Amino acid sequence: MGFVRGREVKMVLNAPLQDPIKYKLMDYEVSLRRAEANLIEVEPLSQWQHDESVADRVATASHDPMPAEEGEVFRKDKIINVALIGNPNCGKTSLFNIVSGAHEHVGNYAGVTVGAKAGTVKYRGYKFNIVDLPGTYSLSAYSPEELYVMRYLNQEMPDVIVNVVVASNLERNLYLTTELIDMNRSMVIDLNMYDELERSKAVLDYEQLGRLLGVPVVPTKASTGWGVNKLLDTVIDVYEMKNRDVRHIHVKMRPEIEDGITRVKDIIKNDPSVSEHFSPRYLAIKMLEGDPEVKTLLESADSYPEIVKTREAETRRIEEDLKEDVAAAISANKYGFIQGALAETLEGDLLQEEKTTRIIDAVVTSKVFGFPIFLCVMFLMFWATFQIGNYPMEWIESLVAWISGLIGEHMTDGPLKDLLLDGIIGGVGGVIVFLPNILILYFFISMMEDTGYMARVAFIMDKLMHRMGLHGKSFIPLVMGFGCNVPAIMSTRIIESRTSRLITILINPFMSCSARIPIYVLLVGAFFPAHGGLVFFCLYFLGIIVAVLTAKLMRRFWLKTDETPFVMELPPYRIPTMKAITRSMWDKARQYLSKMGGVILVASIIIWALSYFPRYDMEQVPESYRQSALADMPEDIRSQFDASQQDELVLNAYQQENSILGHIGKFVEPVVRPMEFGWKTTVSLLAGAAAKEVVVSTLGVLYVGEDDEQMISERISTPSPLTGEPPFTPVKALAFMVFVLLYFPCVATLAAIARETESWKYALFSLSYNTLLAWVLAFLTFRIGMLF
Ligand code: GDP
Ligand code: MG
Predict the structure, then answer these.
(1) Ligand nearest to the CA of 572
(2) Residues 510/516, Cβ–Cβ less than 8 Å
(3) Could you say which DSSP state residue 299 is in?
(4) Is 196 in the pocket of ligand 1 (CB under 6 A)?
(5) Number of helical (H) and strand (E) elements in the chain, helices listed first
């Protein structure tokens, strides 16, 4: 990441709790914990002034022409396989989305993309198969991402590599480029975030840079799409071997190292059993660096023993000559090469952006304001979600009521009408009204991600998270969990430590996801309209407390610490474009609506059918049932109904209780009897396994209203004519919300847990642990609430 010999490192910022510390080197900023910073050797500047200056070692490019391979010049097929490779957070996914029209997750912090995403696009008669790869700083086998990219390059052999680099931070970004040059593959450099370069005072002669590197350079602004066509044109030219800038250069090392490379390379070159996917020079350099992945790659080669022997001898010689570790010497050389290339092409200062970033950071990560600002942002987010969201929610509500009124009036009675009214509108209609709330929440989360504030949050939270045995980075998935636990669990891949990652995954379901919002809004609106904000806050807070305690318990008794260095780049602040924000809002709206039309619709219909069948008529209702039901009916209510209406109420109750669903509900109900949830509520909890919104739609289906236009909130809070008691009371509602907050995650989340931990064991653990905890806390809430 740039901690190489001869570089000046400056301390820029101390986190509010004195740890981690932000450093600046090579025009970018990175935060390290004190413990990790200790691992880096630092020499005082004075000592360096006498040493040989790094600039003296700038290597020059050799000018061999690109060897043209016969038969490859004019391919008949016009399919180009393109791989996007670059540092984390350089805009690969933005580029991928704009080229292929996909909607992958973009965010202004490292590690957003996990795994490869493929897309295709047709352009000028060519078909592009584009793959968006995770970000890497280099191609060694240190992190899973690097390993992934290396294996991808080995197995898939893309026709053209698009190396995305950040225009305003070239020095570090071009390091990866030098490794790709070693590989000698067809390549185009995408000089992304060109807008940032334009805004700074610096001028880059990127055409000249391209000629120096032997790779064409095309400027783009991936967030708006500017320059993307030119980029694709260039990819085609390179693919067709028509581009003049393309030539094969060597990133020359100093002679001591070059000799070593040549000796290892010659053995590899003369051994036909070595895979031809990588150039011999690349393999030789990686062997000298001691890369484990390349070792395994070469292990099967006939000359492997000889390669190893030469490597040992050469490393020893180089280290004796240079008094430096070979890998460090090689990377210092590469940075020298980059400096040389930039010295010839870049004029002026790249630091413009940095100043703004520095000023904002001084405030938002400061000791005094850091936490208060964060809490304000969180408060604003939830306040907007629930308060502002209420207005559009009311409009949709009245629209739903209007539609059901229309159907109620104009359709003839029968199962179809019941299905439409009670099953579909009762179920889906009850949930769809929360679309505005959820969009607002996502708006805030994407703003935090896209501006780069999320990375700062991880920075200021690191020390606190450390106390729980976690990482500042774990905080990002937790905040994302407020949106949806599934992508949040996937995003834990940014955490290197295995156990930290596992814990972060397992506590994520306690972060109250947006699917649970409908339940809270429904119950809070019905029972605590005056204290809505407080109840929401307490619920979210309870989730966080439970998560913290769970993490602590797991650290103490189960997953003992394995520390990995906290290295998190703090990207410069970026103003998200309207285009990116509306695109992401629109995506979320579409996802929500398709969830409505999919799982929630299906679940509502199934629930409805299970409660509708088998059908009974009045003759089948036992007289004893009728008598006791009528006897239970409070006098004042009974007097409002005539005899036939009373019979109808009794029949409806009998029908529901003896439907298939009624039997299921009554079978499970004893488990939650201490909270007096009743069988209908129990069924709705079970149905929540499909998706948490289904809890609300099930309540909507089961608590049939007196007339078609009655909202669910009224139906669950007005006394039932049969018993005179409302289905929920404030205390019961509270216990129910606590249960919903904590109990088993939905199927999609369980699947995500199983997939990410590669074991169903953890999904099962989450299912049972969370449910048990939900039961205990809901019980306590209920009992304590009853005391008042
Ligand atoms: P990845 O990690 O390489 O996939 O990067 P992303 O596509 O997730 O983008 C990282 C951040 O940079 C996001 O906040 C983008 O909105 C932003 N971004 C991407 N391209 C540009 C660009 O050309 N100009 C500016 N100013 N920002 C960009
Ligand atoms: Mg990405």
Answers:
(1) 1
(2) no
(3) T
(4) yes
(5) 37, 12
Q: Is the separation of the CB atoms in 244 and 601 below 8 Å?
A: no
Q: Whose CA is nearest to atom 5 of ligand 1?
A: 91
Contact 26, 171 (CB under 8 A): yes
**Distance of alpha carbon 782 from alpha carbon 297, whole angstroms:** 62
Sequence-separated (6 or more) residues with CB below 8 Å from residue 741: 510, 512, 516, 539, 542, 543, 774
Given a cut of 70, the residues of the chain with pLDDT beneath it are 5-6, 44-77, 107-115, 141, 349-354, 561-569, 705-709
Q: Is the CB of 253 under 6 A from ligand 1?
A: no
Tally of residues, the chain: 788
User: For a pocket test of ligand 1, which of 223, 353, 575, 582 has the largest count of ligand atoms closer than 8 A to its C-beta?
Assistant: 223
How far is ligand 1, taken at its centre, from the CA of residue 482, in Å? 23
Report the candidate in 209, 224, 106, 107 with the shortest Cα–Cα distance to residue 163: 209
pLDDT at 661: 86
CA distances from 316 to 189, 252, 309 (A): 36, 20, 11
Residue 253: strand, helix, or coil: coil
3-state DSSP assignment of residue 758: coil
Cβ of 428 less than 6 Å from ligand 1: no
Q: Are 166 and 91 in contact (CB under 8 A)?
A: yes
Ligand 1 pocket: which of 106, 191, 198, 445 to mutate (most atoms within 8 A of CB): 106
CA distance 332 to 479: 38
Burial class (CB in 10 A: 0-12, 13-18, 19+), 41: exposed
Q: Which amino acid is at 260?
A: G
| 106 touches ligand 1 (CB under 6 Å) | yes
User: DSSP letter string over 565-613?
Assistant: ---EE-PPP-PPPHHHHHHHHHHHHHHHHHHIIIIIHHHHHHHHHHHH-
Q: How far is CA 186 from CA 64, 118, 121, 245, in A?
A: 15, 19, 19, 12
pLDDT tens digits for 236-271? 999 988 888 888 888 888 888 999 999 999 999 888
Torsional class of 563: left (φ above 0), alpha (ψ -120 to 50), beta (otherwise): beta
Question: Cα–Cα distances in Å, from 265 out to 63, 259, 276, 286, 310?
Answer: 19, 10, 13, 11, 10
Residue 219 is classified by DSSP as E
